[in-house]
Amino acid sequence: MTAGPSYRFRRVTTNDRDLLAGWLSHPHVSKWWQSDPPCDGPRLNDPRVARWIVTAHDRPFAYMQDYSVHGWENHHFAGLPEGSRGIDQYIGDPEMIGRGHGTAFIAARLEVLFEQGAPVVATDPHPDNARAIAVYRKLWFEAFGSPRETEWGLILPMRVSR
């Protein structure tokens, strides 16, 4: 039996603009993620958000971010305990979809966030994004509340506790 890939998370830099723009151009990403690559100085320097390029066997294939849910006034996760984090991510490389990477790299990042003291990690997929919701459920996320409209679009609030 061979070991699975080792996932690494490196900070996004301004040099990642073309990589992220390419991933965002794929229909499987753009259907759920409508934003420019987060590569400008102000967004990269925002202390509320940690932005990551995820690699497997040194191959970049995904984007992930985790953020303070208390960093924005009236954020839809503001009722969670202090220190809670939110996550968002996508697999940009189409060849890496459907191979278990999403579940595995999210689990790896959850482990780090819980080790760093986050009592809860929340996410907010679109209610129609069945693939993402299935991955989150594999990782013990549960919906808390009904789908609702936010300034970032229609979401299904989900969370997992330490």
Task: Tell me what the structure shows.
- The protein has 162 residues and is an alpha+beta fold.
- It has a domain at 7-118: 3-Layer(aba) Sandwich (Aminopeptidase), CATH 3.40.630.30.
- It is 25% helix and 28% strand.
- It has 5 helices and 9 strands; from the N terminus they run E-H-H-H-E-E-E-H-E-H-E-E-E-E.
- A 7-stranded mixed β-sheet has the order 1-2-3-4-5-9-6, covered by helices on one side. A two-stranded antiparallel ribbon has the order 7-8.
- It starts with 6 loop residues before the first strand and ends with a strand.
SSE topology string? EHHHEEEHEHEEEE
CATH architecture classification of the domain at 7-118: 3-Layer(aba) Sandwich
DSSP helix count? 5
Question: Which residues sit in consecutive blocks of at least 5 with pLDDT less than 50?
Answer: none
Brief synopsis:
This protein is an alpha+beta fold and 162 residues long.
Quickly list its features.
about 25% helix, about 160 residues, Aminopeptidase, 7-stranded mixed sheet, 9 strands
Topology:
Elements: E1 7-11, H1 17-24, H2 27-30, H3 41-44, E2 49-56, E3 59-68, E4 85-91, H4 101-115, E5 120-123, H5 130-138, E6 142-143, E7 148-150, E8 153-155, E9 158-161
Parallel strand pairs: 4-5
Antiparallel strand pairs: 1-2, 2-3, 3-4, 5-9, 6-9, 7-8
